[in-house]
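Researcher: Please translate sequence to structure tokens.
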Amino acid sequence: MPGLSAPEPATSLESVLRQPVAGTRLRLLSYNIQVGITTQRPSHYLTRGWRHFLPHAERFCNLDQIACLLRDYDIVGLQELDAGSLRSNFINLTEYLAERAGFPFWHHRVNRRVGRIARHATGLLSRVRPTQVAEQRLPGLIPGRGFTAARFGHGEESLVVFNIHLALSRRVRLEQISYLADLINQYPHVILMGDMNCQPDSMELRYLFRRTHLREPLERFHTFPSWQPNRNIDHILVTPQLKVRQAKVLRHSFSDHLPIAMEISIPDSVML
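Model: Translation complete:
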């Protein structure tokens, strides 16, 4: 895994660490939180658009509600955070949510900087200590898109989790998915989660399912827009030996996306 870095622990929370063992279950969540902006109708994109660039009092009330939701999960992939700029009162939102939700380990990736106004980011939170964390850019005409990959356990039977936020352009998404497929195929146990901006029957995801062992979801989980969901563009995809116990969309309208949750069983061969 290129670009290895040490996980960033919230050391004051070590006491709440739960270390799952082989054969147990993991609860997963993926959520595009739209920087803590509640969107309940199309007009809010216009009337509340300024909140993408300036601080507002409601943001941290919404983030505290999101943190309450995250407490029920073991590994969480978050998209559309801020890594500490004017609009977030210079607070790293990944760290903020990790502390509020009791996650000992977190890692953020800054995707794009807009001066002091915004530092667009993704975040990965975990109750399990990663053995390695990597981040890398994805192809695209506009710089910024990338992924975080965390390895849990050691050796060939480790678990690798990718957190991604793919581009809006179909052509660029195909390039990004092709790049990801080569990486995913290096590992037997993979979780790919995030806002992929495309549906399971899209050209991009059909290509991904052909190129990798990731399984196509059996159900269509509509996550966007949150007030009237009719598109399933947020996904948690897993390789075959990770047994899906439950998967669902949660009604948690503190963004323009809904979160998607999954519970999986880990094979006995995977020692975390």
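Researcher: Any highlights?
Model: The mean pLDDT is 89.
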